[in-house]
């Protein structure tokens, strides 16, 4: 696993492996426990395949009661647990640990209820993102968040990472489309947060869980918002001679008060890779391509298309094609959706980064990435959600060449540092996982991080859930609660203490 440092394996747990496997088989009988090395290899990595590690054992529960009993057993016996959905995490969020149970939720794959009057669907976490839309599209509804991996990624994983997609600019991330969850705590307790109602009283624990990356609990049911499809949707495919001009066009469109259904950008390497793969009709003589989708009533869409085209021309656009049919609109998007696998055809390996910046900083950051590309001698293909500044640079490398992975990791870290420097953040939708874990101090100081760890302590006092992820260093909960004494004096000495 290259130079990545993970928590030291607990030798006592490794020595009790046979006992642990036997106990888990009693909870999840049949084929629900996988402990043979070759069979566990399918679970040794998530989509960040540069890092691999076999788990202690793999458990695939089918009922909430089984999840509860597994977590309760692990809590009582001090066994670590790594939750996993479909394994499409791009940040190493589901990377197994040698001394941890890998709790795979893929068997929770049923849609439990579709409530069209209330515009919600209740699903299990193993249901795919696209599966929700397929289940409701016959009534003219759909589920708005649509990450590029939507054909495979699970809704539980979407909740864990707060996934977005090409339409999150207008319709929001997972956090904006989840109304309620059922979850199991590490001690086995089953709780519900939110529901079909629009909002909940008290603390926003639902918001806390969305994006918590498996550190606080295991989601077993999700209530999501479904939307009616807009009357019409059309897309523009706009080419620019430079990425800076395309980036300025993005900023100008938003500044004009236009909120597209989606606004995506690709640079020359990504354009050529996607076109060779999908044959979407992308122009090959441009440095940057914008795909802008407008949706709503026909009259409104026609008006907005004219406005966007005028803004694009003002920013130096050399080509502008407007979709004339639903089939053509879907072809425009097909190349963008397939950009990641397409880049895999032009490079043996790549790291898919994920950072978010203020839109106005797009030209500056794109120029900075070009400089970093020259510094490290590695190519980069840019595919990103331009409308909300969520970048996905793809760093191309060959793992068979010594040191190239290390160079790619350093290149990626510098890109993320650049994002933070211009006022952005380390992640937009992929999460922190292990990929960005050691960069957290670039964005948060010790006080910030300790406060976040206190939240984890409230849910998981033994740090058994997904350890080694998100936080560069986990302090024991007891250490965080200590009274700080400086030069023999306690803080606020005038306060009575009992």
Automatic annotation (TrEMBL):
Occurrences of domain FAD-binding PCMH-type (ranges): 51-229
InterPro entries: FAD-bd_oxidored_4_C, FAD-bd_PCMH, FAD-bd_PCMH-like_sf, FAD-bd_PCMH_sub2, FAD-linked_Oxase-like_C, FAD-linked_OxidoTrans_Type4, Oxid_FAD_bind_N, Vanillyl_alc_oxidase_C-sub2
Keyword Flavoprotein: yes
Database matches in Pfam families: FAD-oxidase_C, FAD_binding_4
Cofactor list: FAD
An example molecular function term from Gene Ontology annotations: oxidoreductase activity
SUPFAM superfamilies the UniProt entry points to: FAD-binding/transporter-associated domain-like, FAD-linked oxidases, C-terminal domain
Assigned keywords, A-Z: FAD, Flavoprotein, Oxidoreductase
PANTHER family linked: GLYCOLATE OXIDASE SUBUNIT GLCD
This protein's name: FAD-binding protein
